């Protein structure tokens, strides 16, 4: 009987908790769903433990009635369910990433023309596969050639006439259509989604944010937004897409469908898979999820996340959307080791990257604040159309800027000695050094300026690749200038280490290190970024300069504030996230933030079925403290609303409205009267703190134990309750914001 009660308790409690978290209207009280609900990590962990114990006891009792092979099969299925769902999520993430890359490449080339032979759905690279080189591809026809009725000339575009008009028209249409899709069908599909994923993994639920509609619209709109030429990237958005895939898949696996804690383990693995397909870096993806996103990352999740990221990367490589054997277009392998004399230049590049990255971060946040407080936010489609038009009209003026962002990064990372593309080879002409340096600096300034409004539009896309492009341009300038200086001075003195080397300084190395410094300053990534760059370049020789440059950039950027773009956007949007990296100095105590007025508690005795039903109908709290008496307020436990509703819904037929309800077992129960015993469902050891506990220690307790609430007592008597929302509201006030956001509707836990 106890075994069955425990198993039933685990399953029904998890179901009711899930329904409450996602705003189920079956719960008593207002039917309007809340946008955010907290996850009770402690309750989830206890529920999983009880479920494991119940399953183990039940399996032991049933072993005698089952055959040996059937028992083995049952155990394998139970143990392999976790691995299977991570496998499915990794495979679908890689498959979807491959489809997005193929569609993005075709949509991007559509601005210039179409493939007249083999099908208009082919990109220019696919259309020109049979040609000796892309410059002699007669199968590709520009829009001006089509309008004039002439054959393909092999050129990507024919100047600033009709092709310029078509380019701007297609770019504006794609950007506007992407914004319309997002605003009309899935507003949650906007942006990169990483701040929201970080909030969800921190223990809050956003209803609809990881749904199937969001997944579909984000995938389609992401293709259009990147193809339009807006200064946004695919890479950060892959994290949101992968998490949507994980959330949809979790519905078909009972272990994850009924547990919010388990689901967050799956979301952590999905985030790692998203970075894996974005940069071709499975290990870097796991570290990114651990360093930047997850607040709950048990050891077994690390291995499963790596497994999920590997499956995603293998799937993407099997699809080979780039037809090059690479996972990403800017993946490259260098053939030279760095010289120790280059370290001062790397340090200088890290400092410059930290300064420029911090400036970009501050301007993006300032623009976001300005946008949210102005009329621009009320007209997101018009805003996107205008930004798309301006971006297209400017980027078309340069052969490099009109390239796809990932192709631009590949060009900046290229090694001059092994480069065969004539367009990219223009960056290696030493006789035109001054013009190349000026051109790269102008590209960095233009990309910098376009990234600020581009990443703040409603369309899907992230800041990672645009920030990396700015840093790569600056790094290429450093490397190219340093290489010219070495050529002029010769292999003597400071450059004596270059003696005997055909090529001593590789500008592409400085480009990739500069992009790492820039991204570190914007996002505050450190260890995960080092590993991502290592996997991206496939060279262990560059770990040391990359690490040094990232550390310098991090130190410089931290001098102006410790929050990266994700944390800044969390604060801007008032997301209920308790930042583990943030330090506070409060003079208050727990009594200053607790709820003490109109505290809703239950007496251990004296309750009836009618009184409990009335309580549930008139309040919408997630749980109720149990006290020995209302006079002494001596705390004896805590019962969740989900458990109350579960017991009341499964009452026997002889239970009437006047039947007594008990919450303790230290009193005699009536013998001839039906009653309800809630004692097995009672949490008899809730987390308690005294009212004089410093607020700083209270915050540390919430962080360390991932609590949803704590009960405040004085000499064993209940005096109040403090929820995670109360803590977040106080921090919100401490940071000087006047907006109430989601905290205005906070309720007693």
What would your notes on this structure say?
The structure is a single chain. This protein is mainly alpha-helical and 749 residues long. The chain is built from 26 helices and 13 strands. It has helices at residues 2-21, 41-62, 68-109, 124-127, 143-148, 162-185, 194-201, 212-227, 235-250, 254-257, 260-279, 282-293, 299-319, 343-372, 380-395, 405-413, 433-454, 464-489, 507-523, 527-537, 543-558, 565-572, 609-618, 641-649, 695-705, 724-734; strands at 36-38, 113-115, 140-142, 204-206, 602-603, 607-608, 623-627, 635-640, 660-662, 676-677, 688-690, 709-714, 717-723. The protein has a three-stranded mixed β-sheet with strand order 5-7-8. A three-stranded mixed β-sheet has the order 6-9-10. Strands 11-12-13 form a three-stranded mixed β-sheet. Strand 7 (623-627) and strand 8 (635-640) form a beta hairpin. Helix 3 packs across helix 13 (299-319). The two termini are 31 Å apart.
């Amino acid at each position: 009987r106890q075994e069955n009660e425990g198993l039933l308790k685990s399953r029904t409690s998890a179901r009711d908790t899930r329904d409450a978290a996602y705003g189920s209207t079956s719960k008593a009280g207002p039917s309007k769903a809340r946008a955010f609900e907290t996850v009770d990590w402690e309750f989830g962990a206890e529920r999983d433990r009880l479920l494991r114990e119940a399953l183990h006891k039940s399996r032991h009792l049933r072993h005698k009635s089952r055959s040996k092979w059937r028992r083995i099969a049952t155990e394998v299925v139970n143990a392999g369910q976790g691995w299977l769902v991570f496998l499915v999520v990794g495979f679908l993430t890689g498959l979807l990433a491959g489809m997005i890359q193929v569609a993005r490449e075709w949509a991007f080339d559509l601005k210039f023309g179409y493939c007249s032979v083999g099908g208009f759905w082919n990109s220019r690279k696919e259309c020109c596969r049979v040609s000796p080189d892309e410059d002699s591809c007669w199968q590709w026809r520009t829009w001006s050639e089509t309008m004039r009725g002439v054959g393909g000339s092999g050129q990507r575009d024919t100047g600033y006439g009709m092709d310029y008009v078509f380019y701007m028209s297609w770019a504006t249409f794609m950007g506007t259509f992407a914004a319309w899709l997002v605003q009309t069908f899935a507003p949650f599909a906007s942006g990169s989604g990483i701040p929201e994923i970080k909030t969800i993994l921190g223990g809050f639920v956003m209803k609809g944010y990881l749904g199937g509609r969001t997944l579909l619209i984000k995938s389609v709109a992401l293709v259009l937004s990147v193809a339009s030429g807006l200064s946004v990237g695919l890479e950060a958005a892959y994290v949101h897409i992968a998490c949507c895939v994980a959330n949809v898949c979790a519905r078909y696996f009972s272990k994850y469908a009924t547990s919010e804690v388990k689901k967050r383990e799956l979301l952590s693995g999905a985030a790692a898979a998203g970075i894996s397909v974005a940069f071709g870096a499975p290990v870097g993806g796991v570290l990114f999820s651990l360093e930047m996103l997850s607040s709950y990352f048990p050891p077994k999740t690390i291995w499963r996340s790596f497994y999920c990221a590997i499956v995603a990367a293998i799937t993407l490589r099997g699809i080979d959307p780039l037809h090059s054997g690479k996972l990403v277009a800017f993946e490259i392998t260098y053939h030279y080791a760095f010289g120790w004399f280059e370290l001062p230049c790397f340090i200088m590049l890290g400092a410059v990257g930290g300064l420029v990255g911090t400036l970009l971060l501050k301007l993006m946040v300032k623009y976001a604040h300005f946008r949210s407080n102005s009329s621009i936010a009320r007209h997101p489609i018009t805003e996107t159309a205008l930004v798309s038009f301006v971006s297209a009209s400017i980027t078309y003026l340069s052969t490099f800027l009109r390239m796809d962002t990932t192709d631009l990064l590949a060009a900046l990372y290229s090694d001059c000695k092994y480069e065969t593309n004539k367009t990219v080879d223009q960056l290696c002409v030493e006789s035109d050094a001054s013009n190349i340096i000026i051109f790269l600096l102008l590209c960095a300034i233009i990309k910098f300026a376009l990234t600020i409004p581009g990443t703040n539009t409603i369309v899907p896309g992230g800041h990672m690749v645009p920030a990396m492009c700015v840093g790569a341009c600056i790094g290429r300038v450093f490397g190219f200038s340093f290489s010219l200086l070495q050529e002029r001075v010769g292999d003597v003195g400071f450059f004596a280490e270059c003696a005997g080397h055909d090529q001593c300084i590789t500008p592409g190395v400085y480009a990739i290190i500069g992009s790492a410094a820039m991204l570190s300053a914007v996002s505050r990534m450190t260890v995960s970024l080092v590993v991502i760059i290592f996997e991206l370049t496939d060279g262990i020789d560059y770990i040391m300069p990359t690490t040094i440059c990232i550390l310098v950039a991090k130190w410089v950027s931290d001098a102006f504030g410790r929050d990266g773009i994700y944390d800044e956007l969390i604060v801007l949007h008032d997301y209920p996230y308790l930042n583990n990296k943030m330090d506070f100095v409060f003079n208050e105590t727990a009594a200053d933030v607790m709820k003490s007025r109109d505290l809703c508690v239950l007496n251990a005795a004296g309750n009836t079925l009618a009184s409990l039903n009335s309580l549930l109908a008139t309040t919408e709290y997630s749980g109720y403290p149990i006290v020995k008496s209302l006079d002494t307020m001596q705390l004896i436990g805590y019962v969740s609303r989900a458990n109350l509703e579960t017991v009341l819904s499964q009452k026997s037929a002889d239970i009437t409205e006047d039947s007594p309800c008990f919450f303790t077992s230290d009193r005699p129960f009536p013998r001839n009267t039906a009653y309800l015993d809630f004692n097995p469902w009672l949490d008899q050891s809730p987390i308690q703190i005294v009212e004089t506990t410093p607020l700083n220690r209270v915050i540390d307790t919430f962080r360390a134990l991932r609590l949803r609430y704590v009960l405040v007592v004085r000499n064993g008597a209940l005096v109040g309750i403090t929820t995670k929302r109360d803590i977040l509201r106080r921090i919100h006030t401490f940071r000087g914001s006047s907006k109430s956001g989601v905290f205005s509707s906070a309720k007693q836990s």
